[in-house]
Amino acid sequence: MRFLNYGRAIALPFAILFFSACSSSPPPPEINLLENIDFELHKIDAVKYAPGEYNKFKVNLRVLKDKIIQEESKFSIFRNYEPIQKNIGDIIGDGKRLLITINEDKSKRKEKISDKIKRLEDKARIINELTLKVNVGASTRKLLTKGGIAISEAKASINSNRYDSAMEKVENAAALLNEAEKLVTPTLRRYSQNDTINKWRNFVRETIDESKRKKMAAIVVDKAERTLTLYKNGKILQTFNIGFGRYGYRDKLFSGDDATPEGKYKIIKKSGRGESKYYKALLLDYPNQEDKKEFLKAKKGGLISKNVRIGGLIEIHGGGEDSTTNGCIALENNHMDELFDKVAIGTPVTIVGATSIENELYFGLKGLKGDS
Q1: What is residue 321's DSSP assignment?
Q2: How far apart are the C-alpha atoms of 263 and 265, rounded to whole Å?
Q3: pLDDT (0 to 100) of residue 14
Q4: CA distance 23 to 31
């Protein structure tokens, strides 16, 4: 009996030691933080944005987990998590730094793409505004529409953090808007050229001087400003808003081009009410000798077909400034009444693209260059 009690006394500590060794100790709690970091890195596509660093993190994490498994397979009295603990701290630091770096890079990329989208939106707006002034046909409108759709798709992609898709849409939109710009700029370019502006200014100055010298009325039409200014004795008497054809900002080259001619003309006929389908009309002496010379030059240079005619019947008439003309200049009927009574056959009429380099079309072209 005494022997039995002695045996129990010896066996009890060993039993306690055995069960203690068999009981599982929890892994370092930081392993959960590492798992969360790994999940976040996966969520932000770390393998795509930082493949080298992310692969290194994954390898270190796998090695760490293997070490933890090895320690857990030992009796608890033999487990030593201290080396692993230090390793965990290093890997956590690497993971956090990688998260910060990738998020910063993605934020910069998003900002860069967003800036491109903003500039494309500005460019599309400018081209759209210019096409309302400079009619360049359905092809430009179609390109603008497609460009607008691509911009919307880019915004949707960037909002869902699909930056590659967003960039692809941005490049597509840029290509479409560049094509639209090419169709608009030939008409605009003349309105930003100093030599052309100076030529127009000289026309206007000569016309005003003639009005002053001969003490007579004279008319100056400014296409860029869409105004008709009536001078008397070299001084401004009245200014009216005007309308013209869908290609009115272009210089007329041939019959049927719907452009409004530029140059120095004279009124050769006055048609009162009942004599014109446009209320009242002032017929100009287009084409003059300079127009005929430029027409032949354009034909010879192959700029226009050899079969086209030069055209004529360019008038200042009523019908409203919003009416569509085929190259003529339109005024509101009440304004036509005022003008009609103050001019005569022989009154000089000078039509120019612009009188200042700082005109609306110039700024439109400048805006396009700034957004390219």
Answers
A1: T
A2: 6
A3: 46
A4: 20
Cα maximum dimension of the chain: 150
Q: How far apart are the C-alpha atoms of 93 and 61, rounded to whole Å?
A: 12
Cis preceding linkage at 287, omega within 30: yes
Nearest to 53 by CA among 44, 29, 211, 116: 44
| Closest CA relative to residue 235, chosen from 221, 215, 263 | 215
pLDDT at position 223 is: 93
CB 278 within 8 Å of CB 332: no
Asked if 266 and 315 count as a contact pair (C-beta separation under 8 A), the reply is no
Nearest in space to 30 (alpha carbons), one of 68, 1, 75, 3: 68
Question: pLDDT below 70 — which residues of the chain?
Answer: 1-27, 135-136, 321-324, 370-372
Q: Report the pLDDT value the prediction gives residue 4, as an integer from 0 to 100.
A: 47
Going by C-alpha positions, the residue among 312, 295, 305, 187 that lies closest to residue 255 is 312
Of 331, 324, 314, residue with least CA distance to 230 = 331
Q: Are 95 and 58 in contact (CB under 8 A)?
A: no
pLDDT at 173: 96
